[in-house]
Design goal:
Number of strands: 9
CATH topology of the largest domain: Spore Coat Polysaccharide Biosynthesis Protein SpsA, Chain A
CATH class of the largest domain: Alpha Beta
CATH superfamily of the largest domain: Spore Coat Polysaccharide Biosynthesis Protein SpsA, Chain A
Radius of gyration: 20 Å
Number of helices: 12
Largest sheet: 9 strands, mixed
Distance between the termini: 45 Å
Shape: globular
Strand content: 15-25%
């Protein structure tokens, strides 16, 4: 009934616990685990092979002949899925007891729901220290395609389960090589309602410094920004309303404007903050309007932003 797709590369310390957390799930239905191993340079492949031997009726490994990249690897495991429902878990994350049963029960009860998510506990990889949850209580609750387009990846990719349609399934877009989760969520939401289970049913591993890599690497950050703008455009082609697309574009331009300001790039900040209000949408009304009004005094905006952030903490 369920195919669990897992993609992994150089996860020798993580893939064992990940697979163990899935094979140990107690369910009243059958499930398979399709593991795409992308020619790791460590012992990840050995661990995956051991689980395939130990659970030959559950674990189906796909060993890439050479490193194909996460897009190709994900497309491979998705196309191999045979279940009515597909759950995805990244190779360094964990499923908690009851995850699969809970999500299948919801999809069985709600034929209108195309995709469901749940919350995940976030922990620091090296120390196992708890860092909160992936989806905080104040985060918007996404119920529709337009919601997913407006607010992006509010829910973790490793918490997703969706209905499998082999004829009109999820297509991995080659353009989104680095930021693919959002477009995948959009494709699922384009076929029905979105539901959120407000329970912690998984654990999301955070590696030291992982969230700040894009902030430090400006080139990578701009690549991510370009892919997200592309995703917003694709959302319109997939049925999202013009209003939702405009809101998403405003949000993306606003966030990148503030990043550019933090990097001291005044001209880029001015250009992007102007783009963020061009469509008439306001993501963060007070701060966005302030940043736009005083865009010709970027150092003032930067200083007051730091003050506000300090007060917020």
């Amino acid at each position: 009934m369920v195919s669990v797709t897992v993609v992994t590369f150089n996860h020798e310390s993580f893939i064992g616990p990940c697979l163990e957390s899935i094979v140990s799930q107690e369910t009243d239905f059958d499930f398979e685990i399709i593991v795409g191993e992308d020619a790791s340079t460590d012992e990840t492949r050995t661990v995956v092979a051991e689980y395939a031997r130990a659970y030959p009726n559950i674990v189906r490994p796909i060993f890439q002949p050479y490193n194909r990249g996460v897009n190709y690897n994900l497309a491979t495991v998705m196309s191999a899925a045979r279940g009515r429902y597909v759950a995805h878990i990244d190779g360094d994350d964990l499923a908690l007891p009851g995850k699969l049963q809970r999500q299948v029960a919801l999809l069985e009860e709600r034929p209108d729901v195309a995709v469901c998510f749940h919350n995940m506990r976030v922990f620091e990889s090296a120390t196992r220290a708890a860092l909160g949850v992936f989806t905080p209580a104040k985060a918007p609750r996404l119920r529709s395609l337009d919601d997913v387009v407006r607010y992006g990846t509010v829910y973790a990719n490793s918490s997703k389960m969706f209905r499998h349609d082999p004829q009109h399934g999820i297509a991995i877009d080659p353009y989104t090589r680095h930021v693919m989760d959002w477009l995948l969520h959009i494709q699922s939401a384009a076929t029905g309602a979105v539901e959120y289970i407000d329970e912690v049913l998984g654990e999301y591993r955070k590696h030291a410094g992982a969230t700040t890599i894009a902030d430090r690497d400006r080139t990578r950050a701009m690549v991510h920004f370009d892919e997200m703008l592309y995703t917003a455009h694709r959302a319109g082609q997939l049925g999202a309303s013009p209003d939702a697309v405009a809101f998403a574009e405003s949000r993306l331009n606003y966030v990148m404007a503030m990043r550019q300001l933090g990097w001291g790039e005044a001209l880029a900040f001015q250009r992007l903050i102007e783009a963020s209000v061009a469509g008439g949408k306001r993501v963060n009304r007070r701060h966005q309007e302030f940043a736009y009004r005083y865009r010709n005094w970027p150092m003032l905006v930067r200083w007051l932003t730091r003050v506000w952030e300090g007060v917020g903490r």
